[in-house]
């Protein structure tokens, strides 16, 4: 599903894993939307996500989450 967002960006829901997560992805954790501000590679394909709020989330290679990803309109 894709929706237009303010500023001409396109917001779409995407399934993410440790291999596909990107800075700027918005993940809902505990009912709160959290934007990924930085990523750290960990052993065995895991990643640690740093959110703009300062909180950390560690996901392993098998974790699957749904995120909102903003893409610019061309």
Supply the number of helical segments. 0
Low-confidence stretches: none
First-to-last CA distance? 18 Å
Bin the helical content. Answer: under 10%
The H/E string reads: EEEEEEE
Instruction: Please give the radius of gyration in angstroms.
Output: 13 Å
Q: What class, by secondary structure content?
A: mainly beta
For the largest beta sheet, what order do the strands appear in spatially?
1-2-7-3-4-5-6
Q: Report the portion of residues in β strands.
A: over 45%
- Please describe the biggest sheet, giving its number of strands, its sense, and whether it closes into a barrel: 7 strands, antiparallel
Number of strands: 7
| Average pLDDT metric | 87
Outline type: globular
Describe the protein's architecture and organization.
- By secondary structure, this protein is mainly beta.
- It has no helices and 7 strands.
- The chain has strands at residues 2-5, 9-16, 26-29, 32-41, 47-51, 56-59, 65-72.
- Strands 1-2-7-3-4-5-6 form a 7-stranded antiparallel β-sheet, with no helix packed on it.
- Strand 4 and strand 5 (47-51) form a beta hairpin.
- The radius of gyration is 13 Å and the shape is globular.
Brief rundown of the structure:
This protein has no helices and 7 strands.
Record keyword descriptors for this entry.
single chain, 74 residues, mainly beta, 58% strand
Task: Break the fold down into its secondary structure elements and pairings.
Layout: E1 2-5, E2 9-16, E3 26-29, E4 32-41, E5 47-51, E6 56-59, E7 65-72
Antiparallel strand pairs: 1-2, 2-7, 3-4, 3-7, 4-5, 5-6
